[in-house]
Amino acid sequence: MAERAESLGSEGFVGVFDSGVGGISVLQHLVRELPAEDFRFFGDSAHAPYGGKTPEEVYQLSEDIASRMIDDGAKALVIACNTATSAAATQLRTHYPELPIVGVEPALKPAVLAPGAGKVLVMATEVTLALDKFQRLAERWAEGVGIETVACTGLVEFVERGELEGPHIAALLEGLVGRYRGEVDRVVLGCTHYPFVRAQIGKVLGDVRFFDGGAGTARQLRRLLAQDGLLRDADHKGSVTFSSSIDTPEERALYQRLFDTPC
Questions:
Q1: Which of 39, 178, 233, 242 could disulfide-pair with 174, CB 3.0 to 4.6 Å?
Q2: Active site includes 81?
Q3: pTM of this prediction?
Q4: For 214-249, how does the pLDDT look when each residue is reduced to its tens digit (9 = 90+)?
């Protein structure tokens, strides 16, 4: 670990990437947890959503982004995408064993352990729900608790456009999860895009508690940086830089707007 810290240096940046804008919800947690760190966020909005792609396609896209960030001097990586974590995290850790790599996964454990009388609803992409990683997670925590899953096709695209409210997204959510109104009391937001429409989901489902993996991801990043001696000095003023595979002023403005939007 000392050798890794010496070779990478605490002054390097933390690379954070997602299929698009959703990972900005995780970035908010990272900045709150580690305000002294420099973060570079890349959103692959040109290829969003990842949820409808094959695991092989998601891995290749993730590998391309990771390799560029490492070449640019990243001291750690955060895969701020549930789908990319499921499809690529294990291989990336094998490929880059010297690098702290943190993923995000559906917060099923805290949702199951939280008090509640109804079922737990997991909202995620088709790929996340289909891969073995989620199936193992569900099998581990499903005993004695009813778990329902919904592949929320179409929801990511609304967030990618910055369309976080209005009749069209309300109608989509009603069609996706309206049938669970009154049946579930805990909702796992299993895609990093979904926290941005938490309020709209709540309007459809009623009085429910929400769980997402952002806070746990931030804590894990802190643990890995600390154990490898890679934390920045506390008096350093951290920074956040955005870039996107859609390189336009409008897209960068959307990234900043979402970063400034509490979720």
A1: 178
A2: yes
A3: 0.93
A4: 999 999 999 999 999 999 999 999 999 999 999 999
